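Posting this for the archive.
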Amino acid sequence: MRVLVVDDQTIYRVGLKTMLEDADGVEFVGEAADGAAAIEACETSVPDVVLMDIRMPGIGGVEATRSIVTAHPEVAVLMLTMLEDETSLFAALRAGARGYLLKGAGPDQIVRAIIAAHDGDTVIGSGASDRLAALFRSAAPTPNSPFPQLTRRELEILELIATGANNATIASRLYLSDKTIRNNVTAIMSKLGVPDRAAIIVTARKRGLGTSG
């Protein structure tokens, strides 16, 4: 399997190159330091698998993945990144990535993921899969709550809104992105049938949320 390495950190690219050259069944065919160079390298190197970082200068990994998969659907892109938030994970998968590994993965795990991605499997590394599992658990319904139509995550956010917390405070408290909080607030308004944040607070407090007693 021909593998292209894409990462803006030279030391990390060198480390991956050394690892791939020592591994059986894979062949290092090139490297790129950003998304634009990765797109170009796919034309010249003809890789089977691309190890792609997400956060890079210029064209990032998600946009580059989308371009590569569109032009070369036979190429398997495997994200290899330090980002473990669900926003990055879902963005990469929506762009067409075949897998998502965190940079703490060991050489054996990376090689196994390359082989699996090349074989058509979707590969989610342990750290990212834990995040994904937690996200799905938070999306489960809450039948015994004051608002059973809300997911656990939405109820958690609703409780903080009811205390008067703003989006930035909620995002910091729950270790989520501002965009994720905004999306959840929109969903809460829709499910509760209320027009704005003030109405959310009134509705929540009527059910006993956000009050000291």
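The first strand starts at residue 2 and ends at 6. The mean pLDDT is 88.
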